[in-house]
Design brief:
Number of domains of chain A: 1
Shape of chain B: globular
Number of strands of chain A: 5
CATH class of the largest domain in chain B: Alpha Beta
Oligomer: heterodimer
Structural class of chain A: alpha+beta
Order of helices and strands of chain A: EEHEHEE
Strand order of the largest sheet of chain B: 6-3-2-10-22
Largest interface: A-B, 21 and 26 residues
Number of strands of chain B: 25
CATH superfamily of the largest domain in chain B: FAD/NAD(P)-binding domain
CATH architecture of chain A: Roll
CATH superfamily of chain A: Beta-grasp domain
Distance between the termini of chain B: 65 Å
Strand content of chain A: 15-25%
CATH class of chain A: Alpha Beta
Chain lengths: 111, 353
Amino acid sequence: MNQQDVKITIIDRDGETHSIAAPTDMAMNLMEVVRSYELAPEGTIGVCGGMVMCASCQCYVLSDTNLPEMTDDEEAMLSEAFYVKENSRLGCQIPITPETEGLEVELAPES
Amino acid sequence: MITTDILIIGAGPTGLFTVFEAGLLKLKCHLIDALPQPGGQCSEIYPKKPIYDIPAYPEILAGDLTAKLLEQCKQFEPGFTLGERADTIEKQEDGSFIVTTNKGTKHKAPVVAIASGLGSFEPRKPLINNITDFEEKGVDYMIKEPEVYRNKKVVIAGGGDSALDWCIFLSDIASEVTLIHRRNEFRGHLDSVEKVQELKNAGKINLITPAEVIGIVGDEKVNAVVVKQAQHNEKEIEIECDHFVPLFGLSPKLGPIANWGLEIEKNAIKVNNALDYQTNIPGIFAIGDGNTYPGKLKLILCGFHEATLMCQAAFQIINPGKKNVLKYTTVTGIDGFDGTRKEAPKAVVKAID
């Protein structure tokens, strides 16, 4: 684990828990981390490439990690998504930073 | 039966540029796309977003890129089968293929180029347990023929541009239009939002927000929808209607192509990137975002390159053994199938006194 890495926990769509090291110095977001570790099949996550236009990277935040506020775009997209819960966020809108150390999320079902 | 030289599955940027490159080799193309318009993702998902990595375009909107590609390939007269999904492929004895769409349209070509990106776009269906029972019986995920709704009661659900635009359009056609959205804010072009506000004030559209359709009532067809209003948690109301149109966007699915006998890896089609982007089935190529090979990058510009090399291989399949040399458009110009000719202006030779 590099010094720039943070530890995050991702529960995939099959319920399997992955504890992974995510780099904070690569301008990555959570959706990209899921893709780079191939925790969801290609084509089922990050479909729009991170433009807040598809909600395929929806996840449920399980830890009380301090995350950036939702933008209007994210809120609007989630209002049209399915399986939305109180703790839903879009992975593409969660940048990996030192503050995300210990983040724990579960991927929402594919829709 | 539609016949052509190269049958292209997918009318996104890679498919459209294929028409141009094939045209330079005097090969005709026909494109099939599940969406009602060409451009693929660029037109459907992000037409107003800028792209910064198209060579020579410091910035171009995705919708404008589609328009430019259509303009560039226009003289090669591509055929289009739009709003239909390529479903089956059958190899013929003469080596050609017949591709049939979900609507039964048949296409025959010696070469098939799959440029299907992430797959064909299918509407996202809301999680209402009996919704599939009412498909084509009042539930429509896409509006194809607005006249169907004349003098009918229509409920539209969704909060994006398509929900807003169709509400506005149908307010003149349907006897009653109700728009239901989970929150008070809509995400659409400002003028669409303002127009809906206007129509609501004029009593031409019923607006129910924040609310959600949670059930469908009817025997043979839709008679009403059950709506749950967020601020009255217990309260459910029924709204009488002939049509329920949920517009929650589209999501791409690889779909029937998965059953064509092609080698698939990570939801993409494996190709020979050392040579010509051919798949494991000779005569079928895969180019653009829908293929995979070591080092693959899903970029429009990579799709353009793959299309160009693929056309050279297609030429050899269609014209076996024929000699072919690379021609530069600057030198030879472009002869369109429509009789037009583009060429560099001749230099003027004039003496200087």
